[in-house]
Amino acid sequence: MTSSRDSRPPLDLARLAESSPAWTTVEVVEESPSTNALVADRARAGSPEGLVVVAEHQTAGRGRLVRSWVTPPRAALTFSVLLRPRVADHRWPWLPLLAGVAVVEAIEGAGGPECGLKWPNDVMYDEAKLAGLLVERVESPSGPAAVLGIGLNVSTSEEELPVPGAGSLATAGWAGADRTELLLGILDALGRRLDRWSESGDDAGLRRDYEARCSTVGRAVRVHLPSGQEVVGTAVGIARDGSLVVDGDAGRASLSAGDVIHVRPA
What is 146-180 written as a DSSP string? Predict the structure, then answer.
């Protein structure tokens, strides 16, 4: 019997070696508990910006608030990139939002389905989560670094999905996605977005692009806070600092990603 590992082709290392100049090194490991942990260690050791580490099988991937993200071997794209943003600290919360826009652009550019973004860090198709994004700040001898982790379900079947409410490009109707082509597309879109954002000096353009893709904006939402309290109202937009703006009975609230556990439809 052919295993799922054998039936799913590995990433094409030769094609990945021709990646965008923005990415100095693209390394592929067969298995890793967490690519974010690997890249964070490399950042602390002084690795330069542009390192990309991809795991064919991530066995203990972490999402926001230490939620798990584990998929079968070669069924997903699980990778982390090392960034050293040359922007003011108050702009760093835009990094996961920027990455979400880049992932959606790459999927559609490669012929995939039209996807949306759920604030703050999910890529969605309809109501199913296809990808999660996680940015971690790491202090290193050469200054602060950002480790951006992306986990995107590609060929994962309905039975293999890690949690209820998850989806994949295959379950969204795109069964023939080429993971190597898709990874190169994401890295290219991410590099272009980062360059434009860093050089612009402000977040207005990114904010417009994100809001246009964000399915959370315009919906009635129930936001769960760490205190156990909830904010219920209509998500009316994204603030200048990347926070979600919600109009509720108690007035208008601006909620940062670090202050939120869940955002659910009300």
Answer: EEEEEEEESS--GGG-SSTTB--TTTTT-TT--HH
5 phi and psi, to 5 degrees?
Answer: -65, -45
Query: 3-class DSSP state for residue 147?
Result: strand
Same domain (yes/no): 95, 51: yes
Cα separation, 170 vs 225, in Å, equals: 33
Helix (H, G, I), strand (E, B) or coil at 132: strand
- Short-list 180, 177, 175, 151, CA closest to 163: 151
Q: Counting every residue, how long is the chain?
A: 266
Domain that holds residue 188: 4-211
Q: Is the predicted pLDDT of residue 4 greater than 50, yes or no?
A: no
Domain count, the chain: 2
Kindly report whether the peptide bond that precedes residue 120 is cis, defined as omega within 30 degrees of 0: yes
CA 155 remoteness from chain centre: 17
Do residue 199 and residue 72 come from a single domain? yes
Q: Quick one: 133 and 228 in the same domain? A: no
DSSP 207-232: HHHHHHHBSSTTSEEEEE-TTS-EEE
Could you say which of 211, 228, 257 is where a domain stops? 211
**CA–CA dist 244, 241 (Å, integer):** 9
Within 13 Å and on the Cβ side, how many CA atoms surround 33? 3
Q: What is the pLDDT of residues 103-158, one digit of tens each?
A: 999 999 999 999 999 999 999 999 999 999 999 999 999 999 999 999 999 999 99
